[in-house]
């Protein structure tokens, strides 16, 4: 019975983190074919968060449940690789941001669209922090990263948003993430 409960709880969490995680795409300039370039997380209706380096194109769109929503504008913090996307009519479900900072050895879930393909989930843990005490402090995780997962949510095992994936090391490990808990935002300066 305990094993069944654990599996069911894990399935429920993975389903909820998948729902709040959406793809960031751009249309091909000639064909109009949509290509996934990054990932974003819905924070509230019409607002999403992603990695700032994902916002370099002027024709960004979010795809939510198979429907495309043009990004009207984005707001970035130049000191951090984070950006808020303004997306008219984009619906929720939306992520819950955890109030307490991530802990070393904490288990995490990274959701994203690697290589512009289907949404995937990678499990890992918080390995440490780099840049400690600076505005650019980042979490180091053992969850496998890949191009396209930038902007993806790093969630705790209960499905609360901890951070946004921003870069990866060689061969996808480690994955680095910008922590976004309200406590960290207050200390470091918010978007």
Give a written overview of the molecule:
- It is a single chain.
- The protein has helices spanning 2-20, 182-188, and strands at 21-27, 34-44, 47-50, 61-64, 67-70, 73-77, 82-86, 107-112, 120-130, 138-141, 153-156, 161-168, 175-179.
- It starts with a helix and ends with a helix.
- The model is unreliable at 1-9 and 183-191 (pLDDT under 50).
- It has a 7-stranded antiparallel beta sheet. The chain has a 6-stranded antiparallel barrel with strand order 8-9-10-13-12-11.
- It is mainly beta and 191 residues long.
- The longest helix has 19 residues, at 2-20.
- Strand 6 and strand 7 (82-86) form a beta hairpin.
Could you write a compact summary of the structure shown?
This protein has 191 residues and is mainly β. 14% of the residues lie in helices and 41% in strands.
Structural class: mainly beta
Unreliably modeled segments = 1-9, 183-191
Note the gap between the termini: 45 Å
Numbering strands along the chain, what is their spatial order in the largest sheet?
A: 5-4-1-2-3-7-6
Describe the structure using short key phrases.
single chain, 191 residues, mainly beta, seven-stranded antiparallel β-sheet, globular, disordered N terminus
Describe how the helices and strands are arranged:
Elements (H helix, E strand, L loop, with lengths): L1 H19 E7 L6 E11 L2 E4 L10 E4 L2 E4 L2 E5 L4 E5 L20 E6 L7 E11 L7 E4 L11 E4 L4 E8 L6 E5 L2 H7 L3
Antiparallel strand pairs: 1-2, 1-4, 2-3, 3-7, 4-5, 6-7, 8-9, 8-11, 9-10, 10-13, 11-12, 12-13
